[in-house]
Amino acid sequence: MKYSALQIFIxxxxxxKSWKPVWREPEPKSxxxxxxxxxxxxxxxxxxxxxxxxxxTNIAVLEKGWIGGGNVGRNTTIIxxxxxxxxxxxxxxxxxxxxxxxxxxxxxxAMVSQRGILNLFHSDPxxxxxxxxxxxMRMAGADAQILDTDGVRxxxxxxDFENARFPIKGGLLQxxxxxxxxxxxxxxxxxxxxxxxxxxxxxxxxxxxxxRNGICSGVETTRGTISAKKVAVCVAGSSSRVMExxxxxxxxxxHVLQAFVTEGLxxxxxxxxxxGAGHFYVSQSDKGGLVFGGDIDGYNTYAQRGNLxxxxxxxxxxxxxxxxxxxxxxxxxWGGVMDMSMDGSPFxxxxxxxxxxxxxxxxxxxxxxxxxxxxxxxxxxxxxKPHPVATEFRLDRFKRGAMIDEKGVGAQPNxx
Length: 416
Hints:
Elements: H1 5-13, E1 31-37, H2 41-54, E2 59-62, E3 78-79, H3 89-100, H4 102-106, E4 117-121, H5 124-139, E5 145-148, H6 149-155, E6 170-174, E7 178-179, H7 182-195, E8 199-201, E9 206-212, E10 215-221, E11 224-233, H8 239-244, E12 252-264, E13 272-275, E14 280-284, E15 289-300, H9 308-321, E16 330-341, E17 347-350, E18 356-360, H10 370-383, H11 397-400
Parallel strand pairs: 1-2, 1-11, 2-8, 4-13, 11-18
Antiparallel strand pairs: 3-7, 4-6, 5-6, 9-10, 10-11, 12-15, 12-16, 13-14, 14-15, 17-18
Helix pairs in contact: 2-7, 2-10, 3-10
């Protein structure tokens, strides 16, 4: 069923009784051309682009829980392409361009809102660093503006401009950045992939990876053995556990990252704001709640829950730039398990086992990368070659001394 204003009108007149399920609930077949392990945003986007761009439809997406139950539904919804290094910037700019046409592409309202993202700076050295980043963004085809204090005040009068410890001297603004409804992204990609013949199989956990003579031939699951010519793993914070089933160790640590939503408030934040002197980021949802987050919890875990010291740390960051947040009631909080690479940049690559591929290490940037990650992973699976904007996301880059150390926001060895 194609969604349109006319369909909404007709369904409203008939009591909304004729809407069809967004995707099927198929039984797994004995074999597929490609099995995508992980039914989050990246896995669903990979299947979608494999079917749409490369015509490969004999695909299964295996999800151990339910669609939208992982990190794709546990984040702060921010999209941006304000990266610095050549290994990252073209990739995230591709993702931004895909976001801009996404809703028309898969005919689903993902609530893409390009309300702008502002990174505050508080010192002269930070100003110089942000000017450098802005120039790199412009050279890569992205948009960037440097604002002074008055420019920031005009956009965000509710920030604390009298704070002597963290004076707001300006900010780096990317007007095309913004937010997207996170679970709608999963639903839209799932619907688009399903409509092209992809089997989306929920409650199907991978318990083993079939390997013989160095060749991957499928997976063992809680719903039986499924063979495949290629297996593509993209399971975010569970990457190390799944790849361990193939005997592989990854340069990744898993940490929990907490996010928070307050009660609904009147409009106070037109866009996304990040705190340059700490690690705090905040936006306001369409319902009025302030959505914010900060640093990862300092310990390794696979649990989707955090701890109170990080709650205190994140709220301190919010109070430092926007004291009014202290008057808002916290409505809910959640945790997503982050796959933190050692240099803060991701992997989209073949493994040493023929037929087994890996996508992971997204650190804080997994959600904003969803479209480009799916496109680049699909390109690798379909052609056997990396996409032109993802040539640096190799698993062996540490061995080769080719790290992409964007900002030191990797796992604990980098101290964030």
